[in-house]
């Protein structure tokens, strides 16, 4: 078995492995190579473990990032809740890890980061266990899920509907969603992704993404990206205007997403990444979602320790506090220009 670098002609072979291998996930699809290369200019390193032409035993998508100080990082994948290595055998996994280590040394990277879902790599690597993703099983159906949530949550959903919130779908609302998302991230102290990233995702993954929005008196006030892959719908990006919290916009948005997932025949709804015991974590638990550990594992090269940045321990806290005080117009201008230099996102 050997490690090869993916060629453009082999993209269907790569995607076939991701689609057929049960533990592979949508962040590993070849389309993200197109998105991150074209929007941010990252150099990709898509590695395959193969034994014969056309026979893939494992994959590792990686991108070279650098921070504002021009220090390099190999990330699998940037701005993604999970990605990492998917390998059908320990041999394939080990070869991919070793090749990543060699690339890290060759390029003088600080570290390689593998963002693993559910199961850690068998290699003895330093690991950060700060994050989980929350998974809701949908197999019981919409009615059973409705009955399983608290009466308090059901009342909030009913009140939201009575207050005039309506549902719509479609990428024609992308500009409105991005404006809401930008406002939300300013409040959280986080730089915004450029609109062209969302446009590229919508173009590359036409058949796999949907945009769900809520309107109030004809105005878009909330939205959620939905990514459909295998038996699961995931929400990588979601945002609501905070002034509509009083009419329970978030409760209604998530219920509409869950209902859509059930009606579309999916078996799992992924609420996305959270830090345990935070407000968003508690909000997602109330739907019956169960935490699944994310293992962020590292091959350290120039770095002396793994990065620790989460809701409870953030080395950027002073910058976050400053960012929150800036006008949205300023953060919208600066954010897309600096977000590409933040490997910890």
Number of strands: 15
Q: Which fold does the CATH topology of the largest domain refer to?
A: Aminopeptidase
Distance between the termini: 34 Å
Instruction: Write down the CATH class of the largest domain.
Output: Alpha Beta
Strand content: 25-35%
Let me know the CATH homologous superfamily of the largest domain.
Gcn5-related N-acetyltransferase (GNAT)
Low-confidence stretches: none
Mean of all residue-level pLDDT scores: 94
Count of DSSP-assigned helices:
11
**In total, how many domains does the architecture comprise?**
2
The largest sheet is: 15 strands, mixed
Alpha-beta classification: alpha+beta
What is the name of the CATH architecture of the largest domain? 3-Layer(aba) Sandwich
Give an overview in words.
The chain is an alpha+beta fold and 345 residues long. It has 2 domains: 2-130 and 294-308, Aminopeptidase (3-Layer(aba) Sandwich), CATH 3.40.630; 139-266, Aminopeptidase. 36% of the residues lie in helices and 28% in strands. It has a 15-stranded mixed beta sheet that branches. A hairpin with a 5-residue loop joins strand 3 and strand 4 (72-76). Helix 2 runs antiparallel to helix 7 and helix 5 (151-162) packs across helix 8. The longest helix has 18 residues, at 90-107. It is globular and about 60 Å long. The two termini are 34 Å apart.
């Amino acid at each position: 078995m050997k490690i090869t670098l993916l060629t453009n002609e082999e993209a269907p072979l790569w995607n076939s492995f991701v689609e057929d291998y049960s533990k592979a996930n949508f962040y590993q699809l070849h389309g993200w190579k197109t998105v991150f290369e074209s929007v941010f200019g990252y150099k990709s390193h898509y590695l395959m473990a193969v034994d014969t032409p056309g026979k893939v035993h494992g994959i590792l998508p990686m991108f070279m990032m650098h921070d504002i100080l021009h220090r390099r990082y190999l990330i699998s994948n940037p701005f993604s809740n999970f990605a990492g290595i998917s390998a059908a055998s320990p041999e394939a996994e080990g070869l991919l890890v070793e090749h990543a280590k060699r690339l890290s040394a060759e390029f003088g990277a600080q570290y390689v980061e593998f963002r693993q879902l559910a199961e850690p790599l068998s290699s003895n690597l330093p690991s950060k266990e700060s994050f989980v993703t929350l998974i809701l099983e949908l197999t019981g159906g919409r009615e059973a899920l409705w009955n399983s949530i608290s009466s308090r949550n059901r009342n909030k959903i009913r009140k939201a509907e009575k207050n005039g919130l309506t549902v719509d779908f479609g990428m024609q609302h992308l500009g409105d969603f991005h404006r809401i998302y930008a406002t939300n991230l300013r409040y959280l102290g986080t730089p915004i992704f450029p609109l062209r990233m969302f446009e590229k995702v919508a173009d590359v993954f036409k058949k796999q993404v949907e945009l769900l929005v809520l309107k109030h008196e004809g105005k878009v006030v909330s939205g959620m990206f939905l990514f459909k892959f295998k038996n699961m719908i995931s929400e990588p990006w979601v945002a609501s205007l905070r002034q509509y919290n009083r009419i329970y916009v978030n409760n209604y948005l998530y219920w509409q997403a869950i209902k859509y997932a059930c009606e579309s025949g999916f078996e799992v709804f992924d609420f996305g990444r959270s830090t345990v015991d935070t407000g968003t974590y508690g909000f997602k638990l109330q739907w019956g979602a169960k935490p699944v550990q994310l293992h962020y594992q590292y091959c350290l090269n120039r770095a002396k320790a793994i990065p620790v940045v989460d809701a409870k321990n953030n080395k950027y806290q002073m910058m976050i506090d400053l960012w929150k005080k800036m006008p949205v117009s300023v953060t919208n201008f600066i954010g897309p220009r600096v977000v590409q230099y933040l490997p910890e996102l």
